């Protein structure tokens, strides 16, 4: 999965403060690629309340940024 903050409709909103991506990128936003195992690990950590969830909402639903890679 490619997560690109520039393609997220939530970019620049208060949702960014509660998203795991800026934490992973040291608050810079941007683009990150995670494989399926990493995605599952992030989801499990989020479900357990240990990290913020992924708040990605793609501008274009068919955008590659939200598709599995």
Spans with pLDDT under 50 lasting ≥5 residues?
63-69
The proportion of residues forming helix, as a percent range, comes to: 10-25%
Written as H for each helix and E for each strand, in order along the chain, the element string is EHEH
Helix segment count? 2
- Portion in beta strands: 5-15%
Derived structural class: alpha+beta
| Quaternary structure classification | single chain
How would you sum up the major sheet? Answer: 2 strands, antiparallel
Secondary structure tally: strands? 2
Record the strand order, biggest sheet.
Answer: 1-2
Overall pLDDT score: 77
3D architecture notes:
The protein has 69 residues and is of the alpha+beta class. It has one domain (2-54). 25% of the residues lie in helices and 9% in strands. The protein is built from 2 helices and 2 strands; from the N terminus they run βαβα. It has helices at residues 20-24, 36-47, and strands at 2-4, 31-33. Strands 1-2 form a two-stranded antiparallel sheet. The longest helix is centred in the middle third of the chain and has 12 residues, at 36-47. The model is unreliable at 63-69 (pLDDT under 50).
């Amino acid at each position: 999965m490619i997560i690109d903050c520039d393609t997220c409709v939530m970019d620049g909103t208060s949702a960014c403060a509660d998203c795991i991506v800026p934490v992973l990128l040291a608050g810079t936003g941007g683009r990150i690629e995670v494989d399926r195992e990493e995605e599952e690990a992030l989801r499990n950590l989020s479900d357990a309340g240990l990290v913020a969830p992924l708040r990605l909402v793609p501008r274009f639903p068919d955008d590659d940024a939200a598709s599995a890679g």
